Amino acid sequence: AIDKLLSFRVGRDTASRCAASVQKHVPRLLTPLSMAVPGRWGSRTYFTLLMLWDLCQAVLADNRLGDCDALATKFAVQRHSTSSQLTPSDPSKMLFFVHIPRTAGRTFHSCFLKPVHAPSKRCAKSYDVLRVNVSLGHCGLLSSHDDYSATQFLPPEAALITQIRDPVGRIVSAYEFVIEVAARVLNRPKNFTMSPSKTDTRSVWPWSILVPLVEEDMLLRVEADRALGTPDHADSDETATSEAEDLDPYDNPLVMPLQDFVAHPTVQDLLGDGAAMQVLGLTNYSHWPEAAALRACARTSRQARARLQTLAQARLDTMLHVGQMEKLDLSVASLAAALNVSLNGTSWLGTTANAFSYEADSDEMLDDATVAARFKIRDVSKAYLTARRKLARIIVHSRNRSPQELEGLHAGEGVTASRNDTELHVKQLQAQLKELAKEARIIGSHEAQGPAKQILPDSHFINESPLRQTVADCAQTARSRSAKRKVNSLTGLITHSGAHVRFSSASREAISPTVLQMIRDQNQMDSALHQHAGMLLHAKVEKQKVAGIFNPLQLQKPAQQRLRRRVGSEALPDDAQSQSALQYPNPVVTPPDPGIDDKLLREEL
Fold first, then answer.
1. How far apart are CA 238 and CA 227, in angstroms?
2. CA-to-CA distance for 601 and 605, rounded, in angstroms?
3. 174, 486, 537, 574: which sits with the fewest CB atoms below 10 Å from its CB?
């Protein structure tokens, strides 16, 4: 298996030399694995091969160390000089969002980029697989975790944008996210299957590699803890274990400690200087064959690393827009000005799956009944969401109220439905949506049988709210969902004695300085890139202000900020906070206190 892997990755001529070179490392590599997973080797084979491959790359890098400077120089000439001579970028033709993981890219894409692009201008979703080939021929918005090397598949006038984040916050956030996704397996039934219309996080790079790696380690640790006893789940949210009894989420017996995660060779290859590697087109997800060798050179040759760092900063200089995650409001407002988009103008709905068809025969037209079902889906979806919000209000208001009070709760709205009636209505609308989906013959881009063709016109997806409101509401909803999803995902991570794993501001501040310094040392290129991105953003905003085209944006309202403080979550950092050495704007929500004002809870819902 090792021989096949090496033959596939580096070619037969170097495979034998590399395989022979790593033999002396095998006992050192396998000993800790055999101690950690006695008798359970089958599921670890893949990760063993990955680590052997890392060693193989190191051996090849040692043999090429003298050539690293030449390799970096050749890369700069062949790749960067060519890109600088391309046709001037035109965002109206193609806008490529180079989404660096854990930089608020999902919010940036879903809450701003999609609402300012009509459905006909959006390329097919490409986070798991690049789907330019099945997108509409004139699609103009592509978002992906692909690195710069994917530009070879795009029009020459494609404009590039990206978001950069401080590497310490990015790596710690990546660790938290990997733990969150891996922990979901503890709460899911054995026969659980992901909806085919959704993109599974486990199929998206780099989580497709990192989540299985951490999950396998987590399951072994949880199994060992369960052997000592069964956790007591009797406590409700209101009487749950206090924060003082929580485990250190970054160093506990249930999951891989943060320090081990940071030191893992696979993690270093995927996330180390990850922003710079993605901007350069040198990730292990790259479409360029020289990427692996240059990544190895960046780790072993100071001169090659300096050359690549300069090249990465030069790449940022050529992009249409470079934002900073810590200044998301400023970044969105600046990009709006760069795209000549009015924040007070109209926007487009985000969900438009029923607008397209991916039939094998692109000339085949859908019948009238199918098209009618697609038109009807939006109205039923609105009714479904309205009913769900109403049900949420009833649940909130039903606390400590008698059935008689509950029955007349919504009389002011002309509605006298009880909770059971509303739940029934929600289920009926949900079933209707499923039937309409069948009638509408909706085939997602993930199962495309042919190139896309648009069935419903763009006018069908005009949003009633202005862009500014759409962006702010979407960002707030995204933060709330992310926080609640994290809380729910981690409920299964509990020791036999009842101690939980919970990420919080206090636990982040308590991370060992040694670990933080490890991250800094492994991400020197990214630290410089983050600083350069801040300078670019500041300079562009100042120019836009002078030109009179900059329109400020606030993604959080004061009332929402108060609410988030009261439920224990963090607000996005301001300029003063963003200067701190450790930045963590990701929200962490604890269960709401029953005494919180109902009005605030309604705002949250």
1. 28
2. 6
3. 574
Q: Are strands 159-164 and 95-98 parallel, antiparallel or unpaired?
A: parallel
Cβ(371)–Cβ(484) below 8 Å: no
| Polymer length of the chain | 605
Structure tokens given for 267: 């993690």
Residue 262 and residue 171: Cα distance in Å, rounded?
Answer: 8
Q: Other C-beta atoms within 10 Å of 78: how many?
A: 12
Nearest Cα to Cα of residue 126 among 111, 141, 112, 144: 144
**152 residue type, one letter:** Q
Q: 406-414: which pairs have CB atoms within 8 A and are 24 or more residues apart?
A: none
Let me know: does 102 contact 165? Beta carbons within 8 Å.
yes
Structure tokens belonging to residue 318: 């050529």
Q: Nearest Cα to 475, choosing from 568, 590, 580, 587?
A: 587
Say what the pLDDT of residue 556 is.
Answer: 55
Four-CA torsion 289, 290, 294, 295, nearest 10 degrees: 0
Preceding omega of 101 cis (within 30 degrees of 0): no
Contacts 24+ apart (CB under 8 A), 422-429: 422/387, 422/390, 422/391, 422/394, 423/391, 425/387, 426/384, 426/387, 426/388, 426/391, 429/380, 429/383, 429/384, 429/387
Q: What is the pLDDT of residues 81-130, one digit of tens each?
A: 655 555 688 998 899 999 999 999 999 999 999 999 988 888 888 887 77
Q: How far is CA 413 from the centre of its chain?
A: 39
Concatenated DSSP letters of 425-459: HHHHHHHHHHHHHHHHT---GGG-SS--EE-S-GG
Structure confidence at residue 577 (pLDDT): 34
Whether the per-residue pLDDT at 183 is higher than 90: the answer is yes
Amino acid type, 583: Q
Query: CA 503, CA 587: separation in Å to the nearest integer?
Result: 10
Query: In whole angstroms, what is the distance from residue 433 CA to residue 374 CA?
Result: 10
User: Which of 205, 176, 115 has its CA nearest to residue 469?
Assistant: 115
519 φ, ψ (degrees, to nearest 5): -65, -45
Tell me the C-alpha distance between 57 and 63, whole Å: 10
C-beta separation of 277 from 62 below 8 A:
no
Q: What are the CA-CA distances from residue 385 to residues 112, 195, 198, 380, 427 (Å)?
A: 21, 19, 19, 9, 12
What are the percentages of helix, strand and coil residues in the chain, rounded to 5? Answer: 60, 5, 35
Locate the DSSP E strands across 267-309. Answer: none
Contact 262, 518 (CB under 8 A): yes
